[in-house]
Design goal:
It is built from 15 helices and 24 strands. With 557 residues, it is α+β, with helices and mostly antiparallel strands. The strands form 6 sheets. Strands 1, 2, 8, 9, 10, 13, 19 and 20 form an 8-stranded mixed β-sheet that branches. Strands 6-5-15-16-17-14-18 form a 7-stranded mixed β-sheet. A 3-stranded antiparallel β-sheet has the order 3-7-4, with no helix packed on it. The relative contact order is 0.16.
Amino acid sequence: MTEGVERETMDYDVVIVGAGPAGLSAAIRLKQLAEAKGQEINVAVLEKGSEVGAHILSGAVIDPKALTELFPDWKERGAPLETKVAKDRFVALGPQGSMNIPVWPMPKLMHNHGNYIASLANLCRWLAEQAEAMGVEIYPGMAASELVWNEDGSVAGVVAGVFGIGKDGEEKSDYQPGLELRAKYTFIAEGVRGSLAKQVQAKFNLNAGKEPQKYGIGLKEIWQVPEENFDPGLVQHTVGWPLSGDTGGGSFMYHFGDRYVALGLVVHLNYKNPYLSPFDEFQRLKTHPVFKQYLEGGKRIAYGARAITEGGYQSIPHLSFPGGVLVGCSAGFVNVPRIKGSHNAMKTGMLAAEAAFEAIGAGRGGDALAEYQTAFDNSWVKKELYVVRNAKPMYSRFGTWLGGALIMGELHLASLTGGFSFLGTLKHGKTDAASTGLAKDYAPIAYPKPDGVYSFDKLSSVFLSATNHEEDQPAHLKLNDASIPILVNLAKYAEPAQRYCPAGVYEVLYDEAGANPKFQINAQNCVHCKTCDIKDPSQNINWTTPEGGGGPNYPNM
């Protein structure tokens, strides 16, 4: 707790940080259990975005498995799963050509029939409506900026709603010290690389014995296309161009709703070339004939980016700690070969809710919910991730083409045997930051200028994300050492922050003579993707929460 600051305190049974799929599913499940037993339980959900869904970005092809467990009648309730998958296509790309790869021989887990194309942001808005109708208190625009501690060292809750601190660190006229929201249990459901999740993982050594978490960056646009180019229910994934064979990743394209095309590129953040720009690779992708045939005559209406957890089974931290739990992507439950994680996030939120409800009913609070860890260990989420555990390491070791072929064989065997592999469980080895190579070993990449039709620049893209931050506030992107970007990162790595950031936050500026480089942070552009916190080779950037409500305002991502 911040020393010397007096705050109003609010007490709850459970406080949930993050109104994403995991946090909202947890809140709903707590209320369902209380209603079934005729009991009361007080639940608060804090959301740093201006509204629920404002910071949610995903592909998204959604497996409804967890939603069906949560609400068996979700169709009758009007859940916005808009378009059932009708066509499943997989394509290998070259610079101009392409080759369709049959989907039917692929492991069944990679097939998408029975799934739905939708906006995950809109699904979260719908889940929030269900939660509020059940009595859950949801507070959008309330960033949880720090943890509150009990005297015994357990988590007691969070501080949220701090406003009105200027760039100089001084209190402004509209200063509000925020609230202390205390709880018997605090659920950390911030999503990928959350600032509070980082703190509890470090303090309680939750990553002991685990592999480093691995990440990708997902860049996404939504286009509205002419009727003749629209193929409702089409799901297409590609590998290959524009990424090189040693750079992991691939694209997605989903047709849904009112002539919408969700189009994106995922780049694995363990890439080596410091000159690579995921944003510019994405812009190049759209100039390929495979995509232009659908986008021609259409209009780009939304843009965003978000980091994705890719470590899987090997990288899942210990899930409970004194006073709380990690749920959803705060722990990392994405199934990389399926390119899906929302169903797993929802289920882990539900499992944590069930453990917390029983503990609170028994008069407990502030302890580690070991029952949640046990429930996860016996769940279909763990089984699903165990089967695919070697996919990411094989991509990393063998590259796109050989690695992809080996993964298909691995997944067929593992699917039939419940996870057996001749390779055992492969390790990831090093972090994505440590994977970055030296600039002297690579040539700069000459990306084509945006054409303004299919490809665009960063600033016009950030405009479409409706990103906004109060300008007179301390920068939420903090450097541990202000000298490192120039003295270390520029000298050794050509300062890759200029390129891995998908929003133009980081620049290296020079004087008129082309000398005296200066590192500039345009924090107001930040779309909260967290890539800088992950990929900076010196691990010098610490992403923290800005004032609540700041960041992107995604309409239907």
